[in-house]
Write a structure and sequence with these properties.
Order of helices and strands: EEHHHEEHEH
Strand content: 15-25%
Number of strands: 5
Number of helices: 5
Shape: globular
Number of domains: 1
Oligomer: single chain
CATH class: Alpha Beta
CATH architecture: 2-Layer Sandwich
Strand order of the largest sheet: 2-1-5-4-3
Radius of gyration: 16 Å
Helix content: 25-40%
Protein name: Putative HTH domain-containing protein
Largest sheet: 5 strands, antiparallel
Length: 170
Amino acid sequence: MLAAHEPFPAMAVDGHWNLVHANRSLSLLLADVAPELLQAPVNVLRLGLHPQGLATRILNFSEWRAHLLQRLQRQYEQTADPWLLALYDELVAYPTPDGIPHLSRVNHTIAVPLQIGTHEGVLSLLSATMTFGTPLEVALSELVLEIFLPANADSAAILRNLALPAEQMV
């Protein structure tokens, strides 16, 4: 399923937001990320909000950060998992770029776009998540697939162009 979503990024994460698997296109977004953030287990929330992760490239950082923290907070409220609370506390403590409110709320009805600056231009992506409704294995019940869809034609073109070298090598 992840490979079928290419050239758009997609990943599978566990209940603690650790990366289980990703398609090749996700790596296109990870340029300039500190290597230690890419060592297993890779926590995708840490990767997205850490100052040496994607944080400096996210153009709507305040809104995206609030979106992710609210998702994590809701997940903690549903599960009471202390690991999630510790992750929330860690993420909230990360320094934020100048002028960004330390904690804010985002009021969105459908989706918050992820806007990432790249050498090829601005990527505007919408994320959608999927879980397995009636898994037969416990491990699958915690698996979440997150796909990123281009929010506009320019973003789709950038992702297609970035993926071309990898596709031509096959």
